[in-house]
Amino acid sequence: MSGDEIMVMAHNTIVMVFYLSMPLIIAATAVGLIVALIQTLIQLQEQTLAFAAKLTAIVLMLSMSIGWMSSYLMTFFKEVMGKIIGL
């Protein structure tokens, strides 16, 4: 394996991590903004409420997208293992 192939694999790994984490980050950010807006409107400054809402959103998003994430991860794993075995 040349240095260029290793750099491509490292780049693909970083892109994969970014791609797999985005749905969870977007869900947590959206729920956080909504909860913050509601808390501002009703003047309730309870940090536990925002944390619980974000945690619930992350768990729900993870449960909805776990099949897609696992298939994407397995495809990537097979590609990497194929390259390693080819050494």
Quick recap of the structure?
The chain has helices spanning 3-42, 47-85. By secondary structure, it is mainly alpha-helical.
Break the fold down into its secondary structure elements and pairings:
Layout: H1 3-42, H2 47-85
Helix-strand category: mainly alpha
Give the N-terminus to C-terminus distance in angstroms. Answer: 7 Å
Share in helix: over 70%
Using only CA atoms, what is the Rg? 19 Å
Into which percentage range does the β-strand content fall? under 5%
Number of strands: 0
Based on the model shown, name its key terms:
0% strand; mainly alpha; 87 residues; 2 helices
Written account of the structure:
With about 90 residues, the protein is mostly helical. It has one domain. It is built from 2 helices and no strands. Helix 1 runs antiparallel to helix 2.
